[in-house]
Write a structure and sequence with these properties.
By secondary structure, the protein is α/β, with parallel strands linked by helices. It is built from ten helices and eight strands. The structure holds zinc ion. Zinc ion binds next to loops.
Amino acid sequence: MTLHDAHNHLQDGALAPHLERIAATWPDLAGTSGCMVVNGTHPDDWPRVAALAARYPFVRPAYGIHPWDAGAARPDDWLDQLRAHLVANPQASIGEIGLDRWMLDTARPDDPRLSGVRRASMEEQIATCLPQLDLAAEFDRAATIHCLHAYADLLPLLRAHRRPPRGFLLHAYSGPTSLIPELVTLGAYFSFNPNFLPPASRPPAKCNQIGYTLPDALGPKLASFAKSIPSERLLCETDAPAMLPPQHWRTHKLPPALDGTPVNHPGNIEAAYAGLTSVRGLENTELSVLVAENFNRLFGN
Ligand SMILES: [Zn+2]
């Protein structure tokens, strides 16, 4: 079976001590054509993303400024650098970009995930996001979008602005189910993150057995993936080293970082596939073929 991780951050320092091993085991785990889209978050980490893509054939590089980094200092020529990365590699896409109201309205001032982050206003975030979306449209490369509690801001932008003809990815989609039909029309793909699975749930005992017992009321995130998202727009992701799956679903474990932050292993893409087969009621091989077609349509070149 071929597995594709549509969204991770292999360049992140938290994965650096484990990189060799992750890379050595990836082809066994994901198949020889299994890829991962490795997303930069700021011009500082773009060279590391490019180096990974040069070294490992399974890495599809993506370059972008994440909304959490929209308030950080950046070189004046950042857009030229971004363009140069797209020119240099026809497999490169744009990501991770997006909008985040959670960090402005909901996150605690001392949330460790945001330590050292200057939280950019929504205006600043939009001003950073739009030129990146423009480049994705100009080159017709996929754009990977992070949107947290900000669909009321993102949707008007997507409606009014030019978008890549091939589409864009809403990673770890957690927006309202009711928005999905319009987002599909605008070109959205949606990647399932196993972090959404109920904490007490377990994967099916056997590889090809469909389904764990789903709770009666699926949360809105799972409900979107169970029914509302069309099959031809589904993808799977880990967001590693972030967004650990619930305990019982983790097939790959890593020790926490030195500061105690949990570290997710990209190999847990297995949990994304196992979880989505359960949520969607598909066979493993069926989902693998479907996701590979979708992945190649959006990220292939
Ligand atoms: Zn991410």
